[in-house]
Amino acid sequence: MATIYDVAKAASVSPKTVSRVLNGDAPVGRKTRKAVETAMAELGYVPSNAARMMRSNRSGLIGLVTGALSQKLEPMEPTGLPDLYIVQGIQRVMADSGKTLIIADTGGTSAKVPQLVRTFLQHRVEALIYVADYHQQVTLDTGAGNCPVVLVNCFDADGTTAIVPDDERCQFDLVTDLVRSGHERIAYFTLDPAMVATELRSKGYRAALEAAAIPYDGALEVMARRNVENDDGGLLQRALDSVLALDRPPTVMCCGNDEMALRLYGLIRSRGLRIPEDVSVAGFDNYRVIAETLYPPLTTVELPYLAMGQRAAEIALGMIKGEDEQLAGSEMVPGPVHWRSSVTALNSVTKLRSNTGSTFS
Amino acid sequence: MATIYDVAKAASVSPKTVSRVLNGDAPVGRKTRKAVETAMAELGYVPSNAARMMRSNRSGLIGLVTGALSQKLEPMEPTGLPDLYIVQGIQRVMADSGKTLIIADTGGTSAKVPQLVRTFLQHRVEALIYVADYHQQVTLDTGAGNCPVVLVNCFDADGTTAIVPDDERCQFDLVTDLVRSGHERIAYFTLDPAMVATELRSKGYRAALEAAAIPYDGALEVMARRNVENDDGGLLQRALDSVLALDRPPTVMCCGNDEMALRLYGLIRSRGLRIPEDVSVAGFDNYRVIAETLYPPLTTVELPYLAMGQRAAEIALGMIKGEDEQLAGSEMVPGPVHWRSSVTALNSVTKLRSNTGSTFS
DNA sequence: AACTGCTATGACACCGATGTCATGACTTCG
DNA sequence: CGAAGTCATGACATCGGTGTCATAGCAGTT
Prior knowledge:
The structure is a homodimer. Chain A is α/β, with parallel strands linked by helices. Chain A folds into two domains: about 60-165 and about 305-335, 3-Layer(aba) Sandwich (Rossmann fold), CATH 3.40.50.2300; about 165-300 and about 335-360, Rossmann fold (3-Layer(aba) Sandwich). Chain A has twelve helices and 13 strands. In chain A, strands 2-1-3-4-5-11 form a six-stranded parallel sheet, sandwiched between helices. A four-stranded parallel sheet of chain A has the order 7-6-8-9, with helices on both faces. In chain A, strand 8, helix 10 and strand 9 (about 280) form a beta-alpha-beta unit. The longest helix of chain A is centred in the middle third of the chain and has 16 residues, at about 195-210. The radius of gyration of chain A is 27 Å and the shape is elongated. Chains A and B meet through helix 4, helix 5, strand 2, helix 6 and helix 10 of A and helix 4, helix 5, strand 2, helix 6 and helix 10 of B. The first copy, chain A, binds a DNA duplex through helix 2 and helix 4.
């Protein structure tokens, strides 16, 4: 691989002059510049980042760890591979800023993390970003020293800078939209309460009811999914039957995620009910393969994974520049409601006017 | 950040001795080693890869480009984000071999590729891997010089080393299993024939029929999905009706992907037919969110993305070691059939014994 | 003519590790 | 006891760029 010395010799100039052509940090004569550029092209010269970094101490690399960190090793129900979107968001911002991403996947073994961090530090990454596959608390065995760290889709006990989805706000917005379109009996089939997101969304659900002065009915909020092997779907079936048996059954059923909604479609129809004429259904995640493919298409909330990634990248870049941003703890990012035909409006007037950034498709 | 000189001073030895402790390439006295190790721990010393690379010229980095390269800019129907699995496969192998992956996503703009490749070359990657999001032909504006290149899920006209899924074999295996379980009237709803995969799978479908001495009936193979905006699902509906109207309607329907199978479930039921009692359904992709969530669970074929990634990584490592492997052109990787209850056996005997690595779940 | 100011260029040290070679202490063997 | 061999260690050059400083050439000013 050619070096500046080779280029310098070919162009009959000093190495330093070649360096100047490369960086444009000092004036270079027009003829000289041309000679150098020709030589570089002929030799197929590409500057070595390693050598450059030796002096500048700026590697241009950002370390990204995905997977792992999970305290539960059980793989979650697939919910659209949020990590991927987060990573894309990060990548997009980083590429624009000229940084290069170096990525390590732990493959679910959080024990590998320290090793990966070490490798990143060897490459002198300018920042470290951890991405979790679902909203959770992590404890990270950093050893990262003074390297800036940003957590995404997770948070820790030490108040490390973190970007998390605003589950509460998302559920709040969804339920508020349901109320606006005339629903009052709103069932909510939750995921495993052990998950961080479940609790937050429950809060959002209740807050939306309260804001609309609709009394909370515990019989309408039922856990319908466990993160355990022996949940064969029976929970959801029983949950459905229990709310259908109520004196005042719900007019709309919210699901903890779109996959649950997919199952629910089948169950509701096997009970002889129509969607949305007899009962409306809403999901969570905007897992498009499901939400747009189902008939009728599913009203659901999008978790803003791409935006979270972008935000995390911006913050990391800010930390590199030394702005520090004082970002103590978590920043929550809300996401839009996607309004589709699985929910029917009960009030004749379309007084539904969302101010929450909802989209209608 | 501490250097070996700092460590050397702290341990009262020469820098070279610290280097020896790090690399173990020469004997070091026990007491000296201990002193050095203590000093390293105290200073939080992490060796600089850049400096190391200056001498060894081995960066330990592998460049990975995803997205882009696609000749069609239209995003495909989501089929389970194969790139992610491929990347995971690559990552897994690379991590085991001590290499670090650096990743760039083109975000769909193949124009960015040369720029990304340049960045990678600056980092002196030891190999370059391109991953496409679906099986396709690409033309890559390399400029990669003598850096080893491996294509995954795509191939080019120049015969660059490439790892692609064995679509033909996969479809062949699936249809063969269907035949073994007693089906003879096998419909096949294909994807857009403009896709490389579609043609290959058609060949597999026909080859399997021929191998079983079942006459090919053109009325059973119908295009049911176009990669265009105005395909509202009507194609599939008409395809279904056309085969149901045949004198000898099919006993099983194969779909071009699992998403199509999801739609087909709905359509079949709206015609008053039961799955699998009246008609069996098979998919393609083993897109688990769909295949395992549907009722009944979907028989489908898995495209071996993880394995493809692993294989690609192995080959790239081989090329780095200079084994060159003579791998002219493409290597095709087959994937297993996942046998689930959406397909019923027509022959009473369970003479079904797959030798194709099928799994039964 | 002497001085100032600017442009264009080169010499040289340096970043942090490692390869090469040299050296001193100690063991082993004839 | 001296020669040869092993062990442990250090001095120094080197990798490929960039920062610092010096210098030569030339125009403009007084």
